[in-house]
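[step 3/7] fold_predict: job queued, chain A
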Amino acid sequence: MKSEGMAAQVQALAETVRKLEARVQKTEDIEAIKKLQRAYGYYLEHWQEEELVALFAHNPEVSLEINDGGLYKGFEAVKNSFNFAEHYTAYDGVKKAPGEFLHILIPLNGIVDLAPDGKTAKGRWYGFGLVAQRRQGQLRAIISCGIWENEYIKEDGIWKIFKLFWATTIASPIEEGWVKTPYLGNVHHEGSPPPGPNPDFAPYPSGHIFPYHYKNPVSGK
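[step 4/7] structure written:
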């Protein structure tokens, strides 16, 4: 009887350890995804093209979509989406964002949900920031806010961006504000996919609510 009781205790302890290991792994995965998204924001600040591209999965289904600017699908297409030559000047053959360019976009209020198998995840973030960029032929100081609804995938043990979608709420000249000028428009470059209507891109003052990837954490609805 004693041996049977001890075996049951060992089995219960092993199950507790298994559950704790799963919780630790889930926590580590979520933190890795949060770091990935924050890194994206820092590289976006000065349009560090190579660093941005390196955050995306090498997967034929990887994609990037900004507002109604068209869908970039596949790694090479995503890579090309960051090749905005108008952002650069040349320094000994090295591409650098010009000093006047600034694209601070801070990921806030992140909600990350892992798939049950721990191999993929979804995340929703506010992006709030300040931008100095050429729009409509002149350097503009812009206040910007929007929402990311992204998907992530663990590739060779490392979390990467799988599907990135950004919907701008406001992109307004600071001197005018978002009530007078809610949205200045995207910067497009040659070779971009054809723009198309996207129901989840509906800037202020539309009142559109970007669909949530998750259920209400209390009601479950």
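[step 5/7] annotate
The chain is about 25% helix and 35% strand.
The CA atoms of residues 27 and 185 lie 38 Å apart.
exit 0
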